[in-house]
C-alpha cells in the first residue's frame, strides 16, 4: 500500500485487569491497524452506490426503448412515403435525430449499469489501438499530439472490440477537454502480473496476468474530491451544455462488464492517467471480415407477431405488412400460443417479445417447438442484458434484436432468420 501513499490509522483499546475485590491492578492495551478495514468499507460503499444507480438505469431502459422504437419507426415510415423535395422531410429528420440521441442516452445508461448486450471475442488490444488511432487523432484535433507506445507482444483479451474502441474514444475526448491550450495524449499498452496485494488495494478481481491500457494527458488534472466522483453518471466539471457527464460512466460500465477494472491517477496541474486492466487469455484472435449492411428486403411469409406494447405492435405490423409479409397479431404470450395452435401450418416465423404478460416469449417458443419442431424464432426486447441472459436467449445462440429497432434493421434481421437453413 505504500505505493499509493496511504496513511495508516491505529485503533487503541484498553482491557482492565482486576483483583478479587474488583480493584484495577493493570491493563492490557491492543493496537489494531484499521487502514485496510476503512479502505474496504469505502470500496463497498462506492460499489453499492454505483450498483444502485445502475439498477435504476436498467429499470427505465425497457419503457424508454419501447417509446423510442415507436417514434423512430413511425418517423421512418413517414419519411419513406415522402417525395425527395417534400418540405416536411427536414422536420422528420429532426425528429429522427432527436430520437437517435435519446436512444444513445439510454444505451449510455445501460453501458454504465453493465446491462447492455455485448459480443465478446478473443481480440488483440494492440490491433484495436492501431485501428482506432487515426480516428482518435481527428477527434482530439491538430493542437494535441497523440503518442502511442504498444507492447511488443500480443495482448489477447476476451472483449467486444467496438466497446473497447468506445472506451478509448471517451477517454481521449476527456483528455482533450482537459487541455484547451493543447498538449500530449499518451496511449500505452503492456502486460502485467498482478498479485493479491495489488487486488486488495484496488478492490477488484483475481490475481493473474492482465493487459493494461493507459491513457495519459498533460492537462489541468484533478483534486482528490473530483477524482472520487468522475465515474458517477451525470457528474461533470464542464460548463453547462458542454457535457452530459456520461462519458466516464460509460467507460466504467464497459470495463466492469469485461471483468476488468479502471483507475484514475491525477494531481492538479500535473495531468491525469487512466489505467484499464483486462484479464489476458490464451486464445488466438479470429476476426471475420466486416460485411456492409444489406438493403432491407421484404417477403411473402407469414409471421406471428407477439408484442404487448400496443404502439410497438402497430408499428411492427405496419413495417412488415408494408414489405409484403402476412402478419398474425398477438397481444401477449397466451394469445400468441392460441394463435399459433390455430395457424401453425401457415406460420413461418415467430417474432416475439421476451417479456410479456401471462406467458413470456421464451415459454411461447418452447411450447411452439414441441408442436412444430424447427419453427423459426426472432426474439426482441427493450429490457437490459441481465434480463435477456436469465431467459437464456443470448447464451443459447437464439436470434435476438434489441429495441429500439429501426425498420430497416428489423426487416434485415427478419429476412436473415427466414433464410437460415434448418
Please state the structural category.
alpha/beta
Bin the strand percentage: 15-25%
Largest sheet: 5 strands, mixed
What CATH architecture of the largest domain do you see? Answer: 2-Layer Sandwich
Radius of gyration: 27 Å
State the order of secondary-structure elements, H for helix, E for strand: EEHHEHEEHEHEHHEEEHEHEHEHEH
Shape: globular
Give the strand order of the largest sheet, numbering strands 1, 2, ... along the chain: 4-6-7-9-8
Q: For this structure, what is the CATH homologous superfamily of the largest domain?
A: Histidine kinase-like ATPase, C-terminal domain
Number of strands: 14
Mean pLDDT: 78
The helix content is: 40-55%
Number of helices: 12
Please, how many domains? 3
Unreliable stretches, pLDDT < 50, 5 or more residues?
Answer: 1-10
- Tell me, what is the CATH class of the largest domain? Alpha Beta
User: What separation lies between the terminal Cα atoms?
Assistant: 58 Å
- CATH topology of the largest domain: the name is Heat Shock Protein 90
Amino acid at each position: 500500500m505504500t505505493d499509493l501513499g496511504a496513511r495508516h490509522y491505529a485503533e487503541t483499546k484498553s482491557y482492565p485487569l482486576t483483583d478479587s475485590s474488583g480493584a484495577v491492578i493493570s491493563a492490557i492495551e491492543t493496537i489494531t491497524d484499521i487502514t485496510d478495514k476503512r479502505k474496504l468499507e469505502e470500496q463497498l460503499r462506492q460499489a453499492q452506490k454505483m450498483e444502485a444507480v445502475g439498477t435504476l438505469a436498467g429499470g427505465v431502459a425497457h419503457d424508454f426503448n419501447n417509446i423510442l422504437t415507436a417514434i423512430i419507426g413511425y418517423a421512418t415510415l413517414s419519411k419513406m412515403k415522402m417525395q425527395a423535395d417534400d418540405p416536411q422531410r427536414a422536420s422528420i429528420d429532426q425528429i429522427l435525430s432527436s430520437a437517435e440521441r435519446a436512444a444513445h442516452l439510454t444505451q449510455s445508461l445501460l453501458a454504465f449499469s453493465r446491462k447492455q448486450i455485448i459480443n465478446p471475442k478473443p481480440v488483440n488490444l494492440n490491433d484495436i489501438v492501431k485501428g482506432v488511432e487515426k480516428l482518435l487523432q481527428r477527434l482530439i484535433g491538430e493542437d494535441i499530439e497523440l503518442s502511442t507506445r504498444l507492447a511488443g507482444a500480443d495482448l489477447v483479451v476476451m472483449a467486444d472490440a467496438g466497446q473497447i474502441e468506445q472506451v478509448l474514444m471517451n477517454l481521449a475526448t476527456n483528455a482533450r477537454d482537459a487541455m484547451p491550450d493543447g498538449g500530449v495524449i499518451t496511449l500505452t499498452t503492456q502486460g502485467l502480473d498482478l498479485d493479491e496485494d495489488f487486488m486488495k488495494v484496488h478492490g477488484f478481481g483475481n490475481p493473474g496476468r492482465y493487459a493494461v491500457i493507459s491513457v495519459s494527458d498533460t492537462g489541468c488534472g484533478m483534486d482528490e474530491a473530483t477524482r472520487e466522483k468522475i465515474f458517477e453518471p451525470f457528474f461533470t466539471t464542464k460548463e453547462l451544455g458542454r457535457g452530459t457527464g456520461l462519458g466516464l460512466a460509460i467507460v466504467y460500465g464497459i470495463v466492469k462488464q469485461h471483468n476488468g477494472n479502471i483507475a484514475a491517477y491525477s494531481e492538479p496541474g500535473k495531468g491525469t492517467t487512466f489505467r484499464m486492466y483486462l484479464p489476458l487469455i490464451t486464445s488466438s484472435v479470429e476476426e471475420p471480415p466486416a460485411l456492409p449492411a444489406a438493403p432491407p428486403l421484404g417477403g411473402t411469409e407469414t409471421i406471428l407477431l407477439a408484442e404487448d406494447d400496443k404502439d410497438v405492435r402497430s408499428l411492427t405490423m405496419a413495417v412488415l405488412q408494408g414489405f409484403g409479409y402476412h402478419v398474425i397479431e398477438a397481444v401477449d404470450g397466451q394469445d400468441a400460443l392460441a394463435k399459433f395452435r390455430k395457424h401453425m401450418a401457415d406460420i413461418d416465423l415467430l417474432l416475439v417479445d421476451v417479456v410479456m404478460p401471462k406467458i413470456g416469449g421464451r415459454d411461447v417458443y418452447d411450447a411452439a417447438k414441441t408442436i412444430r419442431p424447427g419453427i423459426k424464432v426472432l426474439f426482441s426486447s427493450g429490457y437490459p442484458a441481465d434480463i435477456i441472459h436469465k431467459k437464456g436467449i443470448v447464451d443459447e445462440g437464439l436470434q435476438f434484436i434489441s429495441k429500439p429497432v429501426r425498420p430497416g434493421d428489423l426487416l434485415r434481421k427478419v429476412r436473415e432468420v427466414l433464410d437460415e437453413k434448418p
